[in-house]
Amino acid sequence: MRQSHRGAAFCKKMRGKLSKMSEKRNIRDHKRRLLAAKYELRRKLYKAFCKDPDLPSDMRDKHRYKLSKLPRNSSFARVRNRCISTGRPRSVYEFFRISRIVFRGLASRGPLMGIKKSSW
């Protein structure tokens, strides 16, 4: 009996930590999205200059250097779709912005409009 009580308290404590961790991850990802949007045009311009074979090599090298000096998080490759409730990075439905696990729970309980869990 005593161990189950400790286990419940531990789970409650960990649930609070997990929600803080997922919130932190989502905030970090949101900052990356903002940074990527800010530097998107500049990054595309530098990449176009780097790939242009008609330009002299020293000019291409100069633009390649400028591209390398941009912040790393300004690249869209570092942006990740995350679940807004758990922060899970994989198997996220882009339309709902929630993971398959959360989606399944919400679909069975019914708060998602127009979605119901099928059974046969």
TrEMBL record:
InterPro entries: Ribosomal_uS14 (IPR001209), Ribosomal_uS14_CS (IPR018271). Keywords: Mitochondrion, Ribonucleoprotein, Ribosomal protein. GO terms for biological process: translation. Transmembrane segments: none annotated. GO terms for cellular component: mitochondrion; small ribosomal subunit. GO terms for molecular function: structural constituent of ribosome. It comes from the Eukaryota. It is found in: Mitochondrion. Belongs to the universal ribosomal protein uS14 family. This is Small ribosomal subunit protein uS14m.
